[in-house]
């Protein structure tokens, strides 16, 4: 059983908006609910780091979702810059390999060494995007085997590189925890309350199902942001988790 506060803390609201004004309106509509805020590419590329530091200054937990995937030296520099923003969590693509993920950790360590007192962010790796189906993985991308196998392989790499968790669908949470241990965090998008539009997601579960799998955090965007009342939609999800 989760308390209301614990349940809210498991939800990461995806602020997928074209600019600061619309994102700010959503943040204001959820005021007082202790959920995580996720800033992704659309908002970050438009509003910049100022929006992130502003959320932190107002006491929000922030997941900066920029999914870095580049050569190790570049990712090290990117991770260094992100760590200096004081975010709680950020991600890279596990497909960049162990050297790239280790470089991300080095970038964080360098930032912490340069600025003692900086918050240590949890660095996580994206495994297989939750929009990727089994058929797309095998027939289009050309990776053989099951999605779950690919996800677990990436999760093991991320753990070996010293990362704290992975992004995957809730359908793979149990296998990830088995392979990497209970304290290795799972962050799961692909969350759809019963009856909600699936949209471009492929590997989905309801909030309650995802929680039952043992997920640590669930990333939820449109089921909240596109609802007539985002606050009511979030409250309903929180109730479902309690
Ligand atoms: O890293 C992510 O957050 C992410 C990884 C992934 O595999 N799938 C995925 O949907 N996401 C993000 O999670 C959010 C899901 O949004 P909705 O589909 O609107 O609930 C979006 O902001 C995506 O960018």
Automatic annotation (TrEMBL):
The active site is at residue 67. Catalyzes the decarboxylation of orotidine 5'-monophosphate (OMP) to uridine 5'-monophosphate (UMP). SMART domains: OMPdecase (SM00934). Belongs to the OMP decarboxylase family. Type 1 subfamily. The gene is pyrF. Its EC number is 4.1.1.23. One of its GO terms (molecular function) is orotidine-5'-phosphate decarboxylase activity. PANTHER family: OROTIDINE 5'-PHOSPHATE DECARBOXYLASE. HAMAP family: OMPdecase_type1_B. PROSITE patterns: OMPDECASE. Pathway: Pyrimidine metabolism; UMP biosynthesis via de novo pathway; UMP from orotate: step 2/2. Homodimer. Keywords: Decarboxylase, Lyase, Pyrimidine biosynthesis. It comes from the Bacteria. It catalyses: orotidine 5'-phosphate + H(+) = UMP + CO2. Residues 10-237 form the Orotidine 5'-phosphate decarboxylase domain. This is Orotidine 5'-phosphate decarboxylase. Substrate binds at residues 16, 38, 65-74, 130, 192, 201, 221-222. It holds the Pfam family OMPdecase.
